[in-house]
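As practice, study what follows.
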Amino acid sequence: MHSADGHGVTVISLDVTNSTNLEAKEHIERGDIKGPTLITAASQTDGRGRNDRSWVSEKGNFFGTFIVDPQVSVEHIAQSSFVASLALYDTIVSSVSGVQGVTLKWPNDVLIDGKKVAGILLEYQPPYVLIGIGVNLLSYPDNVMINATSISKSCGTVIAMDKFIDLLCTSMTERLQQWRTQGFCALSAQWQEKAHPKGTAIVIRDEDISDYNATYQGLDHN
């Protein structure tokens, strides 16, 4: 465990765990959390995405969960997904010189050239929000259902894990502070600048894993 300089986030690094989100819940239940915390693992045996879908967890990629007290009302908790998306966008752009084609996809994906490179999973364990993040740094799943890529594949760059974690912690801290001080309106405007254009076809999946085709028409600032 170490607290990296500059951002004030306590980083707990594990070799292997079942899931960084489950690990985060255990730390909360033990009363271990004293401030913003990131739990990372070199590999996961039971990583999960939205709607309990399995998340392929190959070594060399990033798997982590931020534990933060958002200091907002419960009805605004879901906004933290957009905070995390912007933090990931900032981190990727800072990590790879001259990178092109990075976009945000509603509600929780980051793309490079239209291919998924990162995903976010939110869970609420009062008073904390768990922001689970998976990033394909080195490899990506060969899954015909998901058009995926990795930063290494798309950009020809291998990012050192320590560098990526420090940049992500800094970006997350800055975006959380922006959310708390400026509100969601400023964040949503910046998210939309970096997102796919209006009119983009999207698929909405509910808790029953049913799919609904829709068209993205922008964000409600609330």
The radius of gyration is 16 Å. The mean pLDDT is 85.
